[in-house]
Structures are given as C-alpha cells and as structure tokens.
Amino acid sequence: MRTGKTSIIILTLNQFHHTILCLESIRKYTPEPYELIVVDNGSTDLTEMYLRQQPDVTLICNAYNKGFAAGCNQGLAIATGDNILFLNNDTVVTPNWLAHLLDTLYASPDIGMTGPLTNYSSGHQIIPVPYKDLLDLNAFAHEHQIRNAGKMTEVRRLIGFCLLVKRTVLDEIGGFDELYDIGNFEDDDLCLRAAKVGYRLYIANACFIHHVGHATMNDIQTVEQKNNVQYLMGINRKKAKEKWGEDIFDLIYKEDVKLSCCVIAKTETSLIRTLDSIKEIADEIIVVDRIGTFGATAAEFGAKYVAGHPSKNNIMQWKRAVEETESQYVLLLDEDEYFSDEMRRKIRVLKRSIANDTVGVAMICDHVDRAQNQAQIRLIQRSIPLLDDVRNLAAYDENVLISSIEIYGEQSVQEKDAIY
C-alpha cells in the first residue's frame, strides 16, 4: 500500500521555459501529498528569479554547476518525504502519474525503485509516441494508461530522469555517488547498489511522462568539460569500472544462478505459507507429497509434483525431489520453514553474487517453531551428492566443502572456521 508524502527533487540549469512547464504540470496533476525541492545549479537566465517567487518551492541555489549527483544529494539532505522522486526539469507529467508510480513502488516490500515510460530515454523505458505537440500529450497518456492499467515490468536499471525511491532504501544504500561529476552513470550506480542488497526495480507501465532530454546539460560550455554527452559517458563509464572492478553494465545485467526449491509437504497451511514465500525467488519448485493430497496446491503455484513416501525420512524425500530439478543449485526446505521479506532479499542477492565454486550455503529460515530457527545448510549445488546428514554443518569438512559456506540470516556460525 502506498504511503506518506513524496519529496520531488528537481535540478535546474537555465532552460527557464522547461522548468515552468514541469512545475505547472506537477501542480495540476498531483493530488497526492508532496513537497517541491528545486536545486539550481548556477542558472544565468530568469530561472532563479522565477523560482524565488514560487511559494511552494524550497530552493537551493548553487553558484556553479555542481552536477546531477551532488545537486540531487543536496535536495535529498533536506527532503522530509517518505518517498523521494528525482525528476528532470525538462519533463511534463500527466494525470495520475504519481499514483501509478506509488502503486508500483508499494506492490511488494522488496521493490525499491520505480520509473515511468516516456518518449525519450535509454533502456526499456522509451516507447514510440504519435503526438507531435504537447497539446496532444494528455490524450495519448490517457489512452496509454487504459491499455496498461495495473501492468508493471521488472528491469535491471531505471533512468534518473524520473526515479521514485523509497526513503528507507536511500537510508540503507545512500544517495547518488558524486564520483560521476556532471552527469551519466550515477543512476546506474544507484540501481546497482539497490540490486546488490536485494531490491527489485520496476517500470510502472501505466505511467507516461514527456521528456525533452539532456536539457540541463545543454549549457555546459567550457573546453574542459567538452560539451559532449558521449565524452562524459565514456569518462564516467571508466570511473564506474574503476569503482566496481568490472564494466557496470556487465554487473547490472549479470545473469542470476538458477535455483530449484524442494519442499516437503506436511499440511495444507504450512505448504501454502512456504510456497508463497519462495514463489518470487525460485526458478523451479518441487513439492514432495508424503500423503498424496497436495497435488492441487502444487499446481496452483506452478510447482512440479513428486509423490513421496510416508515412512521415508526427509533426506530420502529430498533426494527424490533433487532428481527432478534442472537448476544449478537446490534449496532444501522442511515442511514448516518459510522465508521472510528480508530473507527473500538476501536470497535474491545470493543468486546474483554466489561464486561458481561455492557448493553449499548455510542460512536461517523462519520456522513455525522459532526454537528451531538455526543455521543449517539449506542450499547446495545440484551436482553434490546429498549426505544423510545434509543439513548439518558438522557433516562437512574441508575435503568435501571445497569453498566457503556463506552465512545468511539473523546470526552467523562461528564454530566451523575450518570450512570457511
């Protein structure tokens, strides 16, 4: 459920007429609670004078262009909203724009950022448009909204021309990295940092805003800055590689490892709770049914169904399930175990970052009986034979577990330093 006030942070650098259109559209089409924060990066036209006359604008004036990242961070430092919206001044918003963004942002606890579709952007956010004049913008946006109502698309990166972020996410990962100077790649960097702690990024498909593109960069005039977007992109891409050790796009689009979840069914209630907690992180789910009554529930979640045996222990049930898996890693869950929102985030991070030679991962699941919440090996490479005591850390030594055990959850296990 969407909540609270949204702080709209806008940077300006001349382009007076764009700023007027942007602010007027916000005032006209934003019934939700919001505050306007404008950071002017040294405008020499009428921009500053105009902004000082706007009673609903909190204004920060810089004597020179501090760049996109620094300017946004200045606005962020004084923002009081529960949600932070970074918005270019060369945009024109349309009816219901913020409602669609907020609905998508709060569709799930692990969604950290959202953005709209537009006429001018890189990546997945650009769509072809028929309108030639802003007079026809709202008519197009209305039809677009009807066609895409309720739709949302998960992506690996969102562009900073209109970027809505939960305040709690920015409190966790920080604002824009000012390493990137004037502009470009600071939004990619922010998206990567959000993904690295398990947040997902989505496009709110029903939201469409108009974007002119690079308006605030058109007044960069000095030879040193080389008024050339491609040049700036090359410089900042190199900075990103130096920071992260790899090309930033390789990291953003790195393929996740595939994960099969093997669940032993016990009761209808516990099975539904477990499946509901893993459906968004599992590439494949195998349900082992000991008593032959959970086929419909497995089908409801798109899971493979395996007939178990009521007299066999868990390891035998898991071995049967693993035979049906196709992923590189398998996650072994008891009947009463499930994942919290926080653990799902950590699993998502693990799928993107796990080293190829890691054969096992110990973690702490939530359990119906909280006394049983303890670190056990729950994830293992499919190619590793399952031991009879597969979940017990003590069952593995450095000869079997050839790489590190990664500890996830509320506590770590210190007594097995020999196998880290």
UniProtKB/TrEMBL annotation:
It holds the Pfam family Glycos_transf_2. Residues 7-173 form the Glycosyltransferase 2-like domain. InterPro entries: Glyco_trans_2-like, Nucleotide-diphossugar_trans. It comes from the Bacteria. Signal peptide: none annotated. This is Glycosyltransferase family 2 protein. It comes from Paenibacillus agilis.
